[in-house]
Amino acid sequence: MSGEALLVLLSVAALEALLSGDNALVLAVMVKPLPPDLRRKALFYGVLGAYVLRGLALLFAVYVIQLWWVQVLGGLYLLYLMLQHLRDHPEAKPLPEASAQSFWRVVLMVNLVDLAFAVDSILAVVAFSKDLLLVFLGVALGILFIRLAAGYVVAFMERYPGLEKVAYVLVGWAGVKLLLEGEGTLAHLLHRPEWALHLPKEVFWGITLAILVGGSLLSLKRHA
Q: Which segments cross the bilayer (predicted)?
């Protein structure tokens, strides 16, 4: 592999990890209700599904970037997760038993939400190189990093259960981001860019940091 190819590979992997950084938190929240052994399986099948979906997405990038409704549905689902948690205040404990149906439902939702997050990153990573195999390898490395990060996030939430509510608020905020991205995609498809509601990355990550820091301090103070 040439130096240029290696640089493209690492750049795509880093870009995938950065663009989908919030995805790791979302995945952690989605698999956490499962028992520990099923969590690992869910993340494993999520990796396999992500590789297949990303591979297809790269091949059909021109069509994937028009899937505004996937982003909207993904955003609505994440908001639903947040509101359901804040309403019900479920205990931060794994379910003693999980049926095959509930397990595969989690796996399915993990892959659908992953696809929703992928819509905005596909165009960016394809711009790095016309070599789809090289781009896919970079994306694969980024996906692997996200899945590993999700496992650590689950462990962290188990160690500090008071932070689980903060995690769900962040998931809801990620849902808002997906909704706005879906609306922006639709606006461009309708050739009405002035209708697009833009959420600058600086604003998104600034609010994310504020929720994380502020929520963590409040949670730790409450349980001190």
A: 6-30, 42-61, 67-83, 103-126, 132-154, 203-220
Domain with 49, as residue range(s), is 3-222
Six token digits for residue 172: 């809801």
pTM for this predicted structure: 0.71
For residue 124, which of 178, 180, 187, 61 has the smallest C-alpha distance? Answer: 61
Query: How many domains does the chain contain in total?
Result: 1
CA distance 15 to 5: 15
Q: How many CB atoms lie within 10 A of CB 16?
A: 27
Contacts of 96 (CB under 8 A, 6+ apart): 35
Average pLDDT, the chain: 79
| Residue 208 structure tokens | 């994310």
Cα separation, 85 vs 77, in Å, equals 12
CA distance 185 to 207: 22
In b/e form, how buried is each residue of 132-166, taking b as 16+ CB within 10 angstroms? Answer: eebbbbbbbbbbbbbbebbbebbeebeebebbbbb
- pLDDT tens, position by position, 118-145: 776 676 666 666 677 777 787 788 778 8
Q: Residues for the chain: how many in total?
A: 224
- Note the pLDDT of residue 96: 46
